[in-house]
Design brief:
The protein has three helices and nine strands; from the N terminus they run αβββαββαββββ. Strands 1, 2, 3, 4, 5, 6, 7, 8 and 9 form a nine-stranded antiparallel beta sheet that branches.
């Protein structure tokens, strides 16, 4: 579990901003994004593949967009809870290299899973989809695993993909 459990998260965002009473809050979280790759380059922008529990688990900041009041903030790694790990998660590039071809069957296309920092708004009406804060290849965009659909070969990082802390990783919801 990250710094917030679901009950605490829900009560925090439902209350809105305690400083200016605005209903809408901006939430920053590391969430799962699927990326289709050909020759190690993205075929598309990717798509979110997280659920609500993983969104809450990856949350590292909740602020009010109106008055900039910080409602919640944590500098711990959102994936493994290493103290001070957020700076590495946001500032470092992915440590899992993606090959141009499948190492087992030489296929050109791979399916990858990344943890990506994103921002989303909550409250004051329908919530839009999260917006990525980093794109493939940029600091903050961390590959967790890749797989080949042709031969079922899969590679998963063994250390924390965000801050590089040694395993074992804590279980995610």
């Amino acid at each position: 579990m990250g710094q917030l459990d679901e009950r605490t998260f829900e009560s925090t965002v439902a209350a809105g901003c305690p400083a200016c009473k605005a209903a809408t809050l901006e939430i920053k979280s590391f969430i799962d994004r699927r990326v289709l790759l050909m020759l190690a380059d993205p075929n598309d922008a990717g798509r979110w593949v997280h659920d609500g529990e993983k969104f809450v688990d990856g949350t590292y900041s909740i602020t009010c967009p109106s008055c900039k009041h910080t409602v919640f903030e944590s500098d711990m790694c959102p994936r493994c809870n290493a103290a001070g790990g957020l700076a590495n998660a946001l500032g470092d590039r992915s440590r899992l290299p993606i090959p141009k071809r499948c190492p087992s069957c030489n296929e050109l296309e791979l399916l990858a899973l990344a943890l990506v920092p994103a921002t989303a708004r909550y409250g004051g009406g329908p919530s839009p989809k999260p917006q990525p804060l980093a794109e493939y290849g940029e600091p903050g965009h961390h590959m967790v695993a890749y797989a080949c659909e042709s031969c079922d070969n899969a590679v998963v990082t063994q250390k924390c993909p965000l801050c590089d802390a040694p395993g074992p990783l804590r279980p995610r919801p």
